[in-house]
């Protein structure tokens, strides 16, 4: 019963076996039907979940960043800088009408600049090496604030004019720009101090 496979093939000549005509094309068609064209088909669920994953990662990163910022802010308390008070006579003469009382758009503009000014003032850190620089800028801010009070008096006495409204907005804008310049000067001063420390 045990036969050598080589002898079996020697005894039986090879038969010419060919697949029926069109067999290969029918087989490929059946494969395509069964498995589809994998390159073209995209699963909409995976695309939707991919965007959800990206959004979740963004939320986590923003949360971690906000938490880290709060923790760093607690470690370095900020010293609040107060703008020097103007004379009380000018403050008593200021009437009740301000730039924001004229229209909602002007109120938005006024609130934008005043908020920006207050944020910049609150973020100033006074140290011995920058106190003189900050005092110089505070003096300029004080003069601009006095001018703003005078313009507000003009607004109340003469009524709203385009020149007065423009001057009030320009004054607010100039104060904010002055604070940005102060911030840049403080950064330059800090960088110079850091460079001298690194050299030493």
Topology record:
Layout lengths: L4 H7 L11 H13 L8 H32 L12 H6 L10 H19 L8 H28 L3 H38 L1
Tell me about this structure.
- There is one protein chain.
- The protein contains 7 helices and no strands.
- By secondary structure, the protein is mostly helical.
- It has 2 domains: 35-77; 88-199, no CATH class.
- The chain is elongated.
Main beta-sheet annotation? none
For the terminal residues, how far apart are their CA atoms? Answer: 98 Å
SSE ordering: HHHHHHH
The helix/strand class is mainly alpha
Helix amount, in percent? over 70%
Which descriptors would you attach to this protein?
200 residues; 7 helices; 2 domains; mainly alpha; single chain
Compose a concise summary of this entry.
This protein has helices spanning 5-11, 23-35, 44-75, 88-93, 104-122, 131-158, 162-199.
């Amino acid at each position: 019963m045990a036969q050598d496979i080589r002898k079996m093939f020697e005894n039986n000549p090879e038969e010419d076996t060919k697949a029926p005509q069109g067999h290969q094309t029918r087989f490929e068609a059946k494969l395509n039907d069964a498995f589809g064209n994998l390159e073209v088909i995209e699963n909409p669920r995976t695309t939707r979940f991919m965007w959800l994953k990206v959004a979740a990662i963004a939320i986590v990163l923003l949360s971690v960043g906000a938490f880290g910022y709060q923790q760093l802010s607690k470690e370095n308390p900020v010293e609040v800088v107060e703008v020097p008070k103007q004379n009380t006579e000018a403050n008593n003469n200021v009437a009740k009408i301000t730039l924001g009382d004229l229209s909602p758009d002007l109120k938005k503009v006024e609130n934008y600049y005043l908020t920006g000014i207050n944020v910049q003032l609150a973020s100033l850190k006074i140290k011995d090496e920058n106190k003189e620089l900050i005092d110089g800028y505070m003096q300029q801010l004080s003069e601009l604030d006095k001018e703003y009070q005078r313009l507000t008096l003009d607004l109340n006495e003469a009524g709203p004019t385009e020149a007065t409204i423009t001057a009030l907005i320009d004054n607010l804008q100039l104060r904010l720009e002055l604070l940005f310049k102060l911030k840049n000067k403080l950064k330059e001063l800090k960088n110079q101090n850091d460079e001298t420390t690194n050299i030493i």
